[in-house]
Amino acid sequence: MHNETLRPETTPSTLTSFTPNVDASKLNHAPGSLVDKYGRRVSYVRLSITDRCDFRCTYCMAEEMTFLPRHEVMSLEECLQVAKVFVGLGVNKLRITGGEPLVRKEAMWLIERLGALPGLDNLVITTNGSQLDRFAPQLKAAGVKRINISLDTLKADRFKTITRIGDLSKVIKGIEAAQAAGFKRTKLNAVMMRGTNDDEFVDLVQFAIDRELDLSFIEEMPLGEIHGRNTTYISSEETRELLAQRFELIPSTESSGGPARYWRIPGSESRIGFISPHSHNFCDTCNRVRITAKGELYPCLGQNDAMHLLPILREAPGDEAPLRQAIMDSMGIKPFGHDFTQQMDSPQVVRFMSMTGG
Ligand code: SAM
Ligand code: SF4
Q1: Average pLDDT, integer, range 176-196
Q2: Does a structural domain hold residue 18?
Q3: Among the listed residues 164, 192, 102, the one whose alpha carbon sits nearest the alpha carbon of residue 139
Q4: CATH number at residue 234
Q5: Residue 35: Cβ within 10 Å count
Q6: Angle at CA of residue 202, ends 199 and 204, nearest 5°
Q7: 127 in contact with ligand 1, CB cutoff 6 A
Q8: Would 7 be classed as within a structural domain?
């Protein structure tokens, strides 16, 4: 390991591993902003506020999950402190995620404070929708700009099979509650799985059109030990070909600031997005990092390099300087990208998506 040039003052316990050949003096630390060694500016953080969830989606979690003990999870105050430091470093978009963020006790305490943070223009959330009928009005009042809701199927029995526990009708109520609360451009996320939901892609698009929702299809990623991903994987292109038999898809240059590429259907307001980490690698324009509920800063979803913020937070509570320094230094371990395609049956990233935050 080659770490002496990166951060001499970093205690070894705060870094898991390092990208070789990183010279901190060559990092482009423009004052007040985060720029990695490939010149990519980080302006977007995905913050997981819990590893727990009320579903157990088959592609995301093992059936028997062991969740983190409470003392290993960042407190909501610690989450807020981390967010404040990122915003001070030029981050203007933050996605609250998990696990299921809305099952975290007192999640609204944090969300209200994030919504009031000057400089954070774009506070958004990804949820499975199960708690949205209760929380949608509060999220709107707190200043959340948009909601992504995961929905892989419109069939109740299939929904139960995929989520192992979930109730589709609650999620549909959640979608309706988000719209009733005044959220615009609410987006559905559907993971594409051959033999599981590929017969419903047309119906999912029609559902989105009818309800004036956006919809993104996601290529399945090899995160955590789940067998058989090679047989369920479907590329975005294959799905577009299938959809083209029913809809006219017009490529669009619109962006929501994330990895999705969008298509439009004439006569509809819905945007149909594709998140294609295999077939259209988007690493060259990556603008984001992820923070797990444990306070690990992962500069790349598909790699194992991490900066551990929790010991720093707990060693000097309230002192933002070491935290700020660690976050700036994490730019030195942001790898160029991932290689998911080679790993579908033997993932190099052993943590599940629910641990890292989607
Ligand atoms: N619980 C919330 C939800 O389901 O929306 C937020 C967290 S979840 C981990 C975020 C997103 O990651 C969801 O849209 C989910 O479908 C997606 N996801 C989980 N595991 C995945 C995998 N292995 N490949 C692709 N997407 C995955
Ligand atoms: Fe929970 Fe979301 Fe993972 Fe499903 S995808 S198990 S809802 S964290």
Answers
A1: 97
A2: no
A3: 102
A4: 3.20.20.70
A5: 17
A6: 95
A7: yes
A8: no
